[in-house]
């Protein structure tokens, strides 16, 4: 399986679904991170270079491939150009599952990235939204067990030292507490929580041959899909 | 994986998640159906015996084990006794995943079975709700691809001849149309749609040894979960 | 058109949809009121008889037929017996449209009557929910213009003197204020507001002969509803 | 009645409410279609001219007047200029009822057209939202019976050959399946489904003279809207 | 201010709003706890007596008055008798604010107590719902800062040793984690989270004399509340 | 307490929360109004100057400080520049509580101001949304008693003569009616209604010393937040 995680700025992905990505990597899935801006306007005083290096280190630690979107921090809009940037990566990695910001978020970049991703992934059967510190309404129903990966998630976040130490929005202990909170909601230990736009489950391991299932044509007329009353003459 | 599908009356389960159960069976999962009443008050004029035989035939066709709940049609209430009936089957089959009616339904038995199941499955990480013809609000976000199993689902439903031919609520062609409708929503062919109470994904095939992930103890103090300010002396 | 309004106690219907019923009567529709209990436990100190007489006077003033459900005040439960009471009146008047309490209400009788009505009206294409003073969440999207009927609504409510003068829940001026509030939401003068379970619109005055619309059979194969890929052999 | 249907691109309106428009036309209502862009960026490789001709043919087949909004495909934004375009048509046709995209949609043009229409129609008592293949959350409660018009809807859609044959988002059989799915939800045959922003019902055929209803001034003081306690001296 | 917290079983209140109650007590408010059942069916094997003693100790530790409802564990129903039990305590303590279970809960007692409380408190301007481990949907928007009271909350919970040690639903570390999680949502340290049915804010410290505000009677006619067009002759 | 009310145009704030601001002023709170545009495009035909003078008079009447945002009427967008305008006033007045438009509104400026305020106030524990005549979905749960301030609110609105007399969206009598409607919902007389993004309650009058609460360290190991199973070596 090919998994694509999309975030607006360096460290958004780690905060939102770092544990799930580690679980995917551990399960043998291909993991790609698309970071749309360099986070130049973050609390590091324009040290865009520093944040890029930090992001590269975190991706390496997580066993993920890193792709930069080349957009401008705090200036992302959900127009057709942004949609195209996401589409290109979706196609390049042949993504089966996308993780992205929840749509209702107080940061304009997060809203724009969520919207553009929903546009780009309009034909994809699996789109899950993660929570950011600035997310507003969030009603998760899908969870990933990250009990074995909380340490790894924290380590990946710790790569973003310039951000974590200076931003009032990232609170390290709250990251661990939320994982435990969602774990209790999911009836497991530690979890990351996701709000699905749509999630097609994969039940595939073994498969009977289709010939074993009865044929529609053998069934009573009542089951016909286009009854005469529709006027299909 | 052990899958338990729960319904109030004969044919409820087939209508709501028959295709998904066929997909589970095809994937090698153990499938159990718990039918809480015999449907004695259905449109067959009290032919409870007929409906039981029909249900047994349908379960056999789907490769599922059938369990009867022994409750009375149209008299199910979500009290501790009903919770216990569901709990016993949950434990007997060591269920990993439960399918049950959506909670907002105009039939009192459906509401009661959904409530009692949520009580019985309070510690289970995977509970999905299916749609019945009498379901009211329903916002599915989780889907199962049943393109290969629509024929089988219709065949299972056709076992319930006494009900299908006489009830104004079961419309055979609408069953197929809804599967196509949800399939379009899920960006696949034919689908069954589910509203999750909670759904922990299984990402497990391969697993790295936990030793590879960094230890929390090696991280900066900022990540400590119980800061001094909490007053933990 | 035959309209059936259903309420738990005397005066519930007038409060919730009295203006709409007057508008229906003015438009020539048949209007029936089903009052499920006699309101014996209301603030009139067991004067059940008084409340029944008041209800009969109000129904007469509104040009509506009155049916009593015969249930016990404060003891209504949404079981199959209550469903049957509502079903009988639905069938007797051949209702096209039902008005009933909103489902989320702090009074147990209101909740029970809403539930039982949804069960009884499970095959009816038009079910609208009105707001009571004890209604909790309420998100109306369908409105009826009652600008010409606010006076009539207030007059009908004034018939229920024993209740209005003694209950802390019925505030006469708030009734008029809410009609103006909902009128502003509906972009008209005064309105009653309804939350639809389902509302099929009637667009019928004139009708072309069906022969004028193209036949499905003349369309390209892509439009066929059951593609070969479904396995319908 | 004057009905205005608004869509972002050629074929959006037919997909979303083509059956309802045919029902309106059959009932003698005036029907206008406002298509805001020419769909130049669609899957026909810039054949904007082709799509315009197709749209004109479909409108003619549906007995509807066609108005072009003159905006640019994939570049629609919900600003005051777009609001003005919609306002002008609303006023020109003196619309009583508007059909438009649902607000939560993964296509930026669809979101923008829904937003701009809600702004332009801010004083209109009837605004209904239709579902597009790219619509995300959608909770319809208002329905139109299109059993007699499914053939006509499909014929109108078939006019858009360049789009239907080349776009992965338009699936012909899913159009018919969804009409049947919503029909089952509405307890009728085939239906189109709508999410109302607000819908004032028309109950008008016959009307009593207002003089027949009691006058507010004749009622007890308790019903006065501005009690002395408000401080209205 | 008089605060009433209502729970189904011993320890429900401490889990849901123990920190807020400690904050109320610290602020000088009167705090009462109404525990409706003795928790006889809990995991302590019928040691109802033990649970009662534990509850009394916890209430004492929190500076709260304790009232027992006398209902039967696992058998609570939201009927008029249960409503009356809650009404009596509401009146006895002249409650200004009520804390109670959230309505959507998988435990039948929790649902019943929430429903009965909403009925009993139908005229009360302040009703807040707390989260239990078995709560299902929960969308809190009102928070209380419990940073200074997490230690006290844990101490109160530790009084319920028989329950905490034996129930799989109460996970001590998750209690603290959730407080931190909700604190991050509330933009403070540690918080308890509440879903309001209604919450009238108290802005009262100082108050101007009403004579200082302009009189309605001095305003233009346009502001009159009952326009002539309403027919109030 | 410092209260900041934010609106897009002159009179938006008075309509949405004028009564609450008067209540805050009466309680001794500092009240500031930030009006982001001059309302140049309003129904007064470009008399921006007139509207500014009206707004100044209304602010004076309400005892509030007035700040102008300097943006262009009908052209507000929720970008980083608008966020900065709001941030500056938030910091200048050290706001404890913000009132702003509800996010779901048919006017593009209202949506933009709500979004930008949520961005600017991302670290603020108290953000309440008020209803405008153009607000769409609105589910208020927090209320302020304005029974003593309805006269003052109407007087403040009457300052905006150029707008009130010429705009079809502002209906004077509906303002009073809505206050009574929400008052009935809040179980008080007249109220303004608010939808909270988050609202931390203030319970502070008296406060025990933190030393009185038990220490976490004295509690059983089960309460430790980072169990060994997390792998914190």
UniProtKB/TrEMBL annotation, chains A, B, C, D, E, F:
<protein>
    <submittedName>
        <fullName>PIG-L family deacetylase</fullName>
    </submittedName>
</protein>
<keyword id="KW-0862">Zinc</keyword>
<dbReference type="Pfam" id="PF02585">
    <property type="entry name" value="PIG-L"/>
</dbReference>
<dbReference type="GO" id="GO:0016811">
    <property type="term" value="F:hydrolase activity, acting on carbon-nitrogen (but not peptide) bonds, in linear amides"/>
</dbReference>
<dbReference type="GO" id="GO:0016137">
    <property type="term" value="P:glycoside metabolic process"/>
</dbReference>
<dbReference type="InterPro" id="IPR024078">
    <property type="entry name" value="LmbE-like_dom_sf"/>
</dbReference>
<dbReference type="InterPro" id="IPR003737">
    <property type="entry name" value="GlcNAc_PI_deacetylase-related"/>
</dbReference>
